[in-house]
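Structure (tokenized):
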């Protein structure tokens, strides 16, 4: 392997650790520096992963001359750091949610487009090994024409006075469940089933200590004629909290059906046959290897020029569905997405 691309990461919180762990398995890249508002945490991660800690963005760029920036801060500073990086011509891997509003998300994407700076939104859910396998099964025709899907999302971590111990800031988010978490399923549904024509969404707050919604039911109408339901809450008691798949899923088609279990295992039933576990290997790493696969996709794009599944313009399609869901909930009406 030739020279590796050099990266720096911004943020040293819950997800920076998962990112950095995954970067160690990515071919063609290595992380060199870290900058975070919480310097103490940055020092811990720097020690763990052999990085240089910085207080100053420009100094970090000057010293390391990175080939890319991994933005892993909360969304309110994604635009700020994307501008700083794009102004210096440095490619950006930016965490979801892109930004706190649709307008700011569009501005972030446009900023990189105008400067021809590569941007990939770090949307890793669609890269979970079980979704890649389900996509293969659909493409091989094992389900025939898929006409219905259902996902029950139940991480079970949002109850009590101190919900979401891993990410306590969830409690204060005014738009929470769809904006922060449901966005992953909207994007994964787009990956598996194509574009969404309209949504009907209802939201509720079950745990009164949280600011935003912690329950959502979204009815999707896909352009290919399929129907989908995302039935999500984080409050229902679960024996296993935050299971690998965060819940369970069914897909129904003309030639067969399947279900995805919380541990990532897939069970398949052909029409007229018996249900059997579908044999496949779940890739190692966090949530079916999805962080590694997403980061590898980003690096492959830089090294081999392949286009990103979650490029800025592509991912804005997901973001627009998020805001259509909130609009539908507000109006209590079906909201149509523009073609
Ligand atoms: N893709 C996924 O699966 C996934 C999972 C969890 C979180 N995320 C996303 O990752 C991002 C970070 O989430 P998290 O859970 O790690 O949050 P966190 O609060 O645990 O960590 C955020 C980090 O950013 C730092 N930070 C905040 N403002 C900063 C600034 N102006 N400059 C430098 N550093 C700053 C904080 O000090 C902290 O170290 C969010 O966008 C979140 O939605 C993605």
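Design, position by position:
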């Amino acid at each position: 392997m030739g020279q590796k691309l050099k990266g720096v990461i911004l943020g040293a919180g819950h997800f920076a650790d998962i990112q950095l762990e995954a970067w160690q398995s990515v071919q063609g890249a290595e992380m060199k520096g870290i900058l975070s508002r919480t310097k103490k945490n940055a020092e811990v991660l720097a020690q763990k992963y052999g990085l240089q800690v910085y207080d100053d963005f420009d100094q970090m760029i000057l010293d390391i001359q990175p080939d890319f920036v991994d933005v892993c801060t909360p969304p309110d500073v994604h635009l700020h750091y994307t501008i700083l990086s794009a102004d210096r011509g440095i490619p950006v891997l930016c965490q979801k949610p892109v930004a706190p509003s649709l307008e700011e998300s569009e501005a972030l994407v446009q900023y990189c487009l105008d400067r021809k700076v590569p941007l990939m939104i770090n949307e890793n859910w669609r890269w979970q090994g079980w979704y890649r396998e389900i996509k293969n099964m659909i493409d091989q025709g094992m389900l025939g024409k898929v006409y219905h899907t259902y996902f029950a999302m139940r991480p079970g971590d949002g109850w009590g006075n101190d919900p979401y111990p891993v990410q306590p800031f969830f409690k204060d988010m005014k738009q929470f469940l769809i904006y922060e978490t449901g966005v992953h399923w909207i994007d994964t549904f787009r990956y598996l089933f194509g574009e969404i024509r309209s949504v009907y969404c209802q939201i509720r707050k079950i745990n009164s200590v949280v600011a935003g919604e912690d329950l959502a039911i979204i009815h999707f109408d896909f352009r290919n004629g399929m129907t989908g339901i995302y039935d999500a809450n984080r409050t229902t008691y679960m024996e296993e909290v935050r299971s690998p798949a965060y819940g369970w899923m069914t897909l129904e088609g003309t030639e067969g059906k399947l279900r995805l279990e919380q541990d990532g295992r897939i069970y398949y039933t052909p029409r007229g046959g018996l249900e059997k576990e579908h044999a496949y290997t779940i890739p190692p790493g966090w949530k079916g290897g999805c962080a590694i696969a997403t980061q590898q996709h980003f690096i492959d794009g830089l090294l081999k020029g392949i286009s990103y599944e979650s490029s800025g313009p592509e991912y804005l399609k997901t973001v627009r569905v998020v805001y259509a869901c909130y609009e539908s909930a507000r109006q209590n009406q079906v909201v149509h997405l523009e073609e």
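Reviewer-requested clarification: DSSP finds nine helices and 15 strands in the chain. Residues 187 and 228 are 13 Å apart (CA to CA).
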